[in-house]
Structure formats: C-alpha cells, structure tokens
Design a protein that fits this description.
The structure is a single chain. By secondary structure, the chain is an alpha/beta fold. It has a single domain, classed as Vaccinia Virus protein VP39 (Rossmann fold). The chain has eleven helices and eight strands. Strands 1, 2, 3, 4, 5, 6, 7 and 8 form an eight-stranded mixed β-sheet that branches. The radius of gyration is 17 Å and the shape is globular. The two termini are 29 Å apart.
C-alpha cells in the first residue's frame, strides 16, 4: 500500500517516489535485509524495532508463510492461478517462482501501487515458458480497477479457481476504508473453489504499552502508513463464509511449518496471524 490516492499513477515511477516519507514496502524491504529503501524507511523501521524488537523475525516469518501457502495451494489444492495484491519489492521465492516450481503452467498477476515495486516489476515477470505473469500498478482500495484491468483479464481466467493472496497488506487498510468490503468484492469476482490466503499483524500477544508504541512508530505520514493491528476475531472476519483449511487461523510461524528450522519463533515474537481458506 502507498499513500497515493487509489489507482493514481504518474508519468514514471520515479515521479511518485518521496524518499523523505517512510513507506511500508520499503520498510519491509529493510527488515528483510534488502537495499531498496531510504533513510526515512530505515529510521521508521528502527523506531518500530525499538518498540517491537523482533519485528525482523516477524517479517521473515511472514515471508515464509507466503511461500508455504503458495506451495500448499499449488501442490495440494491444485490451484494454477494467483492474484497477489500488495506484492512488495521482489525478493527470493516470489509467488510465481514457488507456484511454477510445482506447476510450471501457473499464472500469476501481481498488484501493488508502490513506484519502487513498479520499477522492479521485470523481476516479477520472469515466468516459466508454460505459465504467465503480469504486474498491475493499482491499489487494493480500488478492487474494480484491479478486476477489470486488461492485463489481469489477459492473464487469468476468472471462470476458473484463483488464489487471492493478501499477505501482510490488510493491516495497512484502516477501518474507515472498510477492508472487509474490499476483500468481499474481490472474492465475489472469483468462482467456487478459489482460495483466500492472508496474514495480518495483531496486538493479541503484545503488552498494551508495546502495541501502542508500535502503532506510533508505524505511522508513515498518513493514515495509510499506519499499521492497524487487529484481534483474532477481527482477522477471522475476513474469512466469513469460507472454509478455512487446517491448521486454521494461527500464527504465521506455526502455519504448516513442520518443515521449517526448529525451534520455531514464538507467537509473541511474530505477532501475526495467517490462514488459508476455500471459497465454497
């Protein structure tokens, strides 16, 4: 997510980059050890780390959750189409790489409105010959633009099941933008047998003073720079009328993590829920 108006674009990605304002995608890149960030992002990231010292662990575990979720969807659920919104800056094992390692014919559409992600979009378009990928410069808060975009319609067949990936993005949508309605609009465009995979930061495991400090540190110059920590019950609301697959709604550090290095981080260290659910 960015602080631009939903769906807004400029003549080039660089025209939209404000290096003086911290950005969630660049801050996440900093926590993951990337180089696509500015001083403001690092300062914001360090401020959050001071309030929540294991934030880098949380970022890494969230990324591993995405990879395991895509692996499950491609391997066990048989999904061959993915709509990944809030893509973030490309790194290792992106959605198309994980999916196409299982099924080379997999087709992936990435969506983000961070101009730095747009500048790196070529890294997201290195599809296998059998499959396809595309990138849409758009905003989660404008689902209609996403669903009607020519690149999406060329890449995905919306009459066939699609996995909607909303990983570490919903907590940037404040209640005033009605994130539940946005998710429902996206799901309503998908057929039965589609899936929702999502993760979300929570304060359930944090002492109240730590949660308050993390919220203040997360603020990036506008309401959309603020992480909106939500409870388990609030996160569960995104999966209304869906069939949640095992192990249900749980910490991203614990979701089908049997093959991950042991011991696993605690739910307190990660403070993020994740789940995958099927649209009946």
């Amino acid at each position: 997510m960015t602080t631009d108006a939903p769906g807004s674009t400029a003549s080039s990605p660089s025209d939209r980059i404000d290096s003086s304002v911290p950005h969630p995608a660049r801050r996440y890149n900093y926590w993951l050890g990337g180089k696509d960030n500015f001083q403001a992002d690092r300062e914001s990231g360090d401020a959050m780390a001071a309030a929540f010292p294991t934030i880098r662990t949380a970022a890494l575990e969230n990324r591993r959750f995405l990879q395991r979720a895509v692996g499950y969807l491609a391997r066990e659920a048989g999904i061959r189409q993915f709509l990944d919104i809030g893509t973030g800056i490309p790194t290792a094992d992106n959605t198309h790489e994980v999916a196409q390692a299982v099924a080379p014919e997999s087709r992936v559409v990435y969506v983000d409105n961070d101009p730095i992600v747009l500048a790196h979009a070529r890294a997201l378009l290195t599809s296998s010959p059998e499959g396809a990928t595309s990138y849409i410069d758009a905003d989660l808060r404008d689902p209609e633009q996403i669903l009607t975009h020519p690149d999406l319609l060329r890449t995905l067949d919306l009459s066939q099941p699609v996995a909607l990936m909303l990983v570490a993005v919903l907590h940037f949508v404040p209640d005033g933008d009605d994130p539940y309605a946005l998710v429902r609009k996206l799901l309503d465009a998908l057929p039965a047998g589609s899936y929702l995979a999502a993760s979300h930061a929570t304060h359930d495991y944090l002492p109240p003073e730590v949660a308050a400090e993390a919220k203040v540190a997360a603020k990036g110059g506008s309401p959309h720079g603020l992480i909106n920590l939500r409870t388990r019950a609030e996160f569960t609301g995104f999966f209304a009328d869906l069939d949640v697959v095992e192990p249900g709604i749980t910490s991203v550090a614990e979701w089908r993590a049997e093959g991950e290095p042991q011991p696993r981080p605690s739910v307190v260290e990660v403070s993020m829920y994740g789940a995958v659910a099927r649209l009946p």
